[in-house]
Amino acid sequence: MIRYNNCKCPIKFLLITTGLILASLFTGCSSGNKITGAYKSGNYPNLFNSLLSKSDAEIKTKLGYAFNQLFYGNDSTERIYYPVGNDMAYLEDILHKDVRSEGMSYGLMITVQLDKKTEFDKLWKWMKTYMQFKEGESKNYFAWQMYTDGRIMDSTSAPDGEEWTVMALLFASSRWGDGEGIFNYKKEALTLLNEMYEKDDRGFRIKSMFNRKEKQVVFVPEPQANFFTDPSYHLPHFYELWGRYAYKYNQFWQDAADTSRSFLKKTVHPVTGLAPDYSHFDGKPYSTKWNPGAANFQYDAWRVAMNVAVDYIWFKKDDWAVTQSNRLLNFFEKTGIKTYGNLFTLDGKQLTVDRSLGLISMNAVAALASTNENRKLFVEELWNADVPTGQYRYYDSALYMLGMLQVSGNFRIY
Q: Which of 109, 111, 186, 340 is exposed most, by the fewest CB atoms within 10 A?
């Protein structure tokens, strides 16, 4: 209880009290947690500058070139962003000729970070028009896979798309303000966020995107695959913000952030730092009939390095992130900085010789939390890479753009 000394004015008391209440609401249930990192300082490391001595002008030019190629380059070989009419657009998985909620949500995040409101709004309108369910048990969720003409290919929802979309919409609200209808970004974000928690209360077959007992994100919110998780879906830095800015369930989101940090420690290999694609809630690897290699380090798992490093840069809650990032980069340097493949068993046996810019990009992001001398090598690999082209460019391009933003200090909290 706070005692207001010498406060005899009821209006003054009301103003002070109201301010304290609003501050409490703004910080949610997390006001007692010690926070440092960029959330508090506003300082985002720029490794291109600090490690490679690249100028602000060089970095801005490189980011601009990458964005222009991926959004407005050659239709057949370069771009992944395709306009539909004058007011919509989608990001296409070129190889599979489809549109994925994961990629669309990355597109939202990339455009809000680069202050590209026109492109953001076009992507968001396509998602709202075609991808988001308007009724039924999946209402407010997104179909994870669509045909480019807007028809649903697979009606299952994948939580990583919803997670990134919520965060991008909240950032858009802060950067640009809220508009009308579907462009009331904050309302749209919180409606989706609440649904991701509340679906279990509806008595439906389609469930919440988080196991409320385990306080962890599930693989998909359907009974056949909601009893395990995907380590790359764990985004404690997003949950930390939701615990502060959401209007409901703030303590749950804060608990989910803490739980994810603990989970990630359990699921990565103690020597290599590699994470599996899928795992049980206790961190142990998990395989499925449709993905028998999911107990290995595969395409989804590349992103764990990013999630650990960005969480550390934003909040610096646990120095384990430094240990983990050092361990991971040491493994890849030992494997061969110029030659490492893209798929491994967790104990480090290489399964392919294929090189992937998506993994190279994520390893560069790990350098943000690393204290190794070798981190410069991984940042150089990203800087020297060409913007992806060709039929495999979709996933590599998305992770490349996120990596470029993060390593350059342009992936920020708004």
A: 186
Helix, strand, coil shares, percent, the chain, to 5: 50, 5, 40
Average pLDDT over residues 216-230: 97
3-state secondary structure of 412: coil
The predicted-structure confidence for 91-131, as pLDDT tens digits, reads as follows 999 999 999 999 999 999 999 999 999 999 999 999 999 99
Distance CA 349, CA 337 (A): 15
- Cα gap 24→320, rounded to integer Å: 30
Tallying the residues shown for the chain, one arrives at: 414
Closest residue by Cα to residue 405 from 48, 40, 42: 48
Give the rounded percent of residues in the chain with a pLDDT score beyond 90.
Answer: 91
Give the contacts of 215 (CB within 8 A, at least 6 positions apart): 252, 255, 256, 259
Short-list 255, 230, 225, CA closest to 240: 255
Q: Are 259 and 226 within 8 A, CB to CB?
A: no
pTM metric for this prediction:
0.92
Quick one: DSSP state of residue 90? E
Beta-carbon contacts of residue 328 (< 8 Å; ≥ 6 apart): 268, 272, 273, 274, 305, 363, 366
Paired sense of beta strands 145-146 and 99-100, if any:
antiparallel
- 368-390 pLDDT, tens digit per residue, is 999 999 999 999 999 999 999 99
> What residue ranges define each of the domains in the chain, with the CATH number in brackets?
28-79+234-414 (1.50.10.10), 82-227 (1.50.10.10)
Q: Which amino acid is it at 219?
A: F
Distance CA(51)–CA(362), nearest Å, equals 17
Q: How many percent of the chain have pLDDT more than 70?
A: 92
The 10 Å Cβ neighbour count of residue 192 is: 19
Rounded CA-CA distance 301/2 in Å is 48
CA distance 281 to 230: 9
* Run of H or E including 89: strand 88-91
Which residues, at least 6 apart from 138, have a Cβ–Cβ distance to it below 8 Å?
155, 157, 206
The SS3 assignment for 91 reads: strand
